[in-house]
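Figure S7 source data.
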Amino acid sequence: MNTTPDPTWGSDAGASLPVAVEVLRYGPLSRAEIGRRLGLSHASLSRLSAPLIERGVIIDIGEHNNGRVGRPTRLLDVDASKHHFLGMKIRETEIIAAVTNMRGDIVAHSHTPMEERTPEAVVARVRAIHAAASGERAITGLGIGIGGAVHERRTVIRAGFLDWSDVPLADLVESATGSPTLVENDVVALCEYEDWFGAAAEDDRFAVITLGIGTGFGLVLNGQPIVNDDYGIGLVGHWPMDPTGPLCEQGHRGCAAALLNSDAIARYATEALGTPVSFDETVQRAADGQPGPVRIIEDAARGLGILVAAVCNLVLPQRVIIAGEGVRLAEVGWDTLVQSIRDHRAPQSHLPPIELSSGDNLEWARGAAVLAIQAFALGRFTGP
Ligand SMILES: [Zn+2]
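Tokens for the predicted zinc ion complex:
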């Protein structure tokens, strides 16, 4: 296998770039498959792939028969271990970090507690995490996900949980680390992972709903997450679900925050059982069949079904992915969730695939790393 270093990867690829990106996202692929996917003739593909192979951006990994009957075909692939990326998710009390290869596979990770939330203190933590990761392997680029509104992948317009507004985080981190850096809303970053390497990599239109301390929603159309500067201020976090449900702290009856937020669920279980119970314990007790927690999780699953049904009715997604550290509520309440989706859609409608992610909070950091992978692969990194 040719693993000659290639620091610029696709940045000088010109017209060949779509071939490189296709092999990165979907490889290994045969030449016939790449041609079919990109609508290229055999001659065009040969012309476009030759310089990439010469520069080691894509590699010929020889003949494979893919387990199928028939003549083995020669496959092209990318050596994903040539470059590594650092993704971070900034939370209220910690930074979750993951180092990934060029396909978003996690090779190392860390959790760093954070006491102070000023931009200076957070950037100092980010710099320390970057320094530690760089000691292990070269970091090509850095991505940061944050639960807030972000402008053009550089400036945090607003992140209420940190008390931040208009913080030029990408500039600050680039100065501190010397690494090209992108910043984005955490749900958008998760969507980018799913779009490039995850469950929705073959879809043109899909939705992501995240569960946890809040409810997030992302929509991707033809490779583009649908965002504006209002995105990330919590537009779906108070979606109405149950007119007879409990109140959220803003006074809405039965909104998403009141039914789905992990702290609300823990509070209902604590009240019902008369003893302190966490969100995770509530879900586990529901899985074990304890009546109080079962009722709380079923109420939540029914409410989630109303949101999923609305998404299905309004945007006709090919797939809905439910993710975030609260995803287990959808797993344990699955039957109620599916019934609720059906109850809130036309009887003859088809249910798109509903995928549940692992719920591992490293998924957030991996999504952030994909921001940097994309920018690098598409030749958008500037500077040194
Ligand atoms: Zn509310």
